[in-house]
Amino acid sequence: MLIVGHNEVRALLEEREQDILDLIARAYRLHGEGRSAVPHSVFLRFPEEPANRIIGLPAYLGGSEPVAGIKWIASFPGNVARGIERASASMVLNSMVDGRPEAFIESSLISAKRTGASAALAAGLLCAEPEPTGISLVGLGPINLEVLRFTTARLPSLRTATVYDLDTERAKVFAERARQVVPGLTVAVVDSAAAALGAHPLVSLATTAGRPHMDLSACQPEAAVLHVSLRDLTVAAVLDAQNVVDDADHVCRERTSLHLAELETGGREFVHAEIGTLLRGGSGFRREAGRRVVFSPFGLGVLDLVLARWVRDRANAEEVGVRVEGFLPGGAA
């Protein structure tokens, strides 16, 4: 069994944004072709602690290098006040020969980076011409930092960021970190979500909201909104926009904004396209003048798989990580 820890994962992924974008795009295309198996995620909730949850995402991705496994990711919002990250994650990869577990990988960075890359791919597809010069970020944790990292890699035209968080001090710390992640970036901290929403035609929402609290009236008329946190937007805001998702069946669950829109309307006609189809060039989707577009990614397990496999392969090639002998019965794996 190969075990790869957080610091090793960080070193392997450092400055590999284009590789990661390519991997995530490939996973989306394969999923769009039906060459994946993505069961519904399992949500473990706690009656005494309703804000906390642990999610299991099993998945299989086919193609020339098939891979299977599961991500186990916990979200404990109270961790932020304790000075530690809200989310923690681990990944198990199974052999496609005998099914045995062959790698255990710390996956918080994998999860954050695949989310950032996913959002960046959508931004590249959905932003109206000309390419935006600025991005607005609402909710300033590790996810939006990765969204910033990957959107600036995908859209080099981005040279300005306007940021907002309920915690003013957190916003200041994020702004400084953002300038380090993207040298030369101009960062403005604003004192309201509305000011951030209206500042640029590209917006990323990555909050910890558990229920809808926001419309898009403050956004520019043709804004592209990366609705990464899935539960920020009111049903009216969803229905008023063009909606792109990663997988309609997955995103319309667990009382996301889109699930609530489905419950209200009785259907999913408000979902206009899936990103895998867009990347394959197989959709007739077109931006409508004067209308906002919202990308709502549930976060498919195949994205974690393809990036974890890449980490595993690089760790093996560079002899990184720890091998535990005798982990399995009847062998030295």
From TrEMBL:
The lineage of its organism: Bacteria, Bacillati, Actinomycetota, Actinomycetes, Kitasatosporales. The gene is sbnB. Signal peptide: none annotated. GO terms for cellular component: cytoplasm. NCBIfam families: dehyd_SbnB_fam (TIGR03944). This is 2,3-diaminopropionate biosynthesis protein SbnB. It comes from the Bacteria. GO terms for molecular function: oxidoreductase activity, acting on the CH-NH2 group of donors, NAD or NADP as acceptor. One of its GO terms (biological process) is siderophore biosynthetic process.
